[in-house]
Fold:
Amino acid sequence: MKNEDQQSAIKETVISIRGLHKSFGGIPVLQGIDLDLFKGENFVVLGRSGSGKSVLIKIIAGLLKPDAGTVSVLGQQVDQLNDKELQALRLRLGFIFQSSALYDSMTIRENLEFSMVRNFKTLSTKEVDRAVDDVLDAVGLKDKINAMPADLSGGQVKRIGIARTLILHPEIMLYDEPTAGLDPITCTEIIELINEVQSRFNTSSIIITHDLTCAKETGDRIAMLQDGHFTRLGNFGEVFDTDDIRVKRFFDYNFIK
Amino acid sequence: MNIKHTYIRIIDSFYWLIRKHRSDDGIFTHKLDRFFLETYDIHKFISRFFRELFTKPFEFREIIRQSYEVGVRSIPLITLTGFVIGVVFTRQSRPPLVEFGAASWLPSLIGIAFVRALGPLVTALISSGKVGSHIGAELASMKVTEQIDAMDVSAVNPYKFLVVTRVVATTIMIPLLMLYCTFVGMLGSFMNVHQNELTSFVTFFESAFAQVSFLDVSAAVFKSILYGFTIGIVACYRGFNATNGTQGVGRAANRAVVFSMFLIFAEELLIVQITHWIAAF
Structure:
């Protein structure tokens, strides 16, 4: 444990959360979350539906405001930032929604270049085109450049969702249920893509999921979110080496004991 | 003291009065809570529009695209409605005028009716149904599928891209559609008059505009600008704040139409009154 503390001190912290509380309509969802995400790390948050996993990353991205506690992202306290500062910070964050949230009235090309052309006005058309080609190449969907989101399969939509964030070269990726609703083979492809993104773009990631295969394959550290706080934290083996019946049920369901 | 504190103090004063007469179950005050909160939200939404309107970046391409959607795509419906109203209104107005020996006043009546009321109102009501429901449903659908959040997290201001562009488009295009609707309506009217009295095109329009004053035209243009702004802002507000999935999308579209029509009638009453006061001077 001591050794782990020393390691933590050496590593650069990109997200630091202390005593985070959030409730909706008087119902507490997050009750004292403490979290450190280190540079280059994949941190997986596991938990049941409605346990507050998505709320956690929405607070990190500044989409929701915390009731109490501090959320520091890349050295900046998110809830203290004005609109411009928050916008600048968001350029360094990539958020992949559960539904991917592609703009359904735009083609894939327009989806990808949408934020780029608005945030980097000095870029030439050639540079934007090259960036679009590069990210489509990275997710293996170069041939879908002129397709509409409605024409893509579930797995392709997820890939384009990832490509849309990669085009801005974010330092931190926030994945909300990246494998939800996908078949096992497509899940494996998305898991491989998450790992590839981490190694190729050197990103730090928080991955929200209830898919243990995804957690095991992508997570450097895993946290179990229950009753509004992390009840288990460590690597895959450490988290599931417990007699806690709820954690065991989670494991048994995913791996068909 | 900022505007939020002033607003809260005004509401507190209201509550002080209400508490003296409230029922024990508190339902009355709960509904008032919602009403005041929504009023404050609408006020914030409109203030934000004017703040964002004059700050960079300006989404000119999107404004042009939305203007095309609002204006050009409404032309067939406005043409049909305006023309039919022109014909029907003339047919219905002729018998009583003929009875009083005032058939020659028909073009003037048509001109006044279309410029002062029919043109702006018909355009606004048709547009609130067609454009308002479209904007309300589109933004609500983007909201419930997290597309608006996706814009936010990719460092693009969704309010500027989605709301400002649409409200500007409706504010510019509705007055133009009103002028077009007035022309088409009077054309329909002319065809009916020509069929009966063989009046020439020039004579008809000269007679029609003889009684129309500058105040009538400017009031009509001003009204249409206000109607356009109302349709845009109400539809965007309802869409931007939609909740509850697909049900919320339908509700947002429905409320966008109903609420904007209600406001259009209220504004019409107010502007007619103001125009009369100005004319009396």
Notes: The radius of gyration of chain B is 23 Å.
